[in-house]
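<amino_acid_chain>
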Amino acid sequence: MNTSFHFYTQMHLIELLRIKAKNPVEILEGLKKVPTSSIYYHTHRFLQQHHYLSPEPPNDFAYWITEVLGLEELGESLAGVDTVSFKNLEELRAEYIKILTNYISKGKHIIDCEDGEEFYFMGCKTFVLPTPYFAHNLKEFIEILNKISINSLYFHMFEARMRLKRDENDFANWFRNMGEKKLAKDLLRLDPYNVTLEGLREDIINLVRKYAKH
């Protein structure tokens, strides 16, 4: 049965957590106790806030370790984490913990940052809001995808998969349920982390347009 796709959007309320760090040991301790919303914020916020940049800047942990502490080896290890390969935030947290634990256990160079340059863990509360847009077929999907906000695109492509612990994004899930299994598979092959969000919008539209002609 072919059901419509309802487009949603989102808003974030950023909050300052009462956890800060001045060295890799304290970053590790903070990572162990902050909520998953903090892991999400520090690894995904650039994708949405700086959607015109490609490739996206590194995650906040890698940036602070490298730019503030000058620990390039550790920073490169943290920056090298392939965020897209993790299905949920707890697995992603565990990978950062593993890297830091391994670095610290080897007695590598540990230094404190200057006063005022501490790392402050942030969190975010997400509010999901419905839009007035419904797609009943691929043609309508293309028309709507052309005009929805970046926040809506981000929600269906990134938020649903990571925060809601789904194996696939909302678009692919809908395509599959409506019988377009090859389209769903082709969409999942796209790497949304290596293009801007506007570029991603264009890639999805071009892909769906091929199947809409059938």
Remarks:
- Residues 89-105 form the longest helix (17 residues).
- Residues 73 and 119 are 18 Å apart (CA to CA).
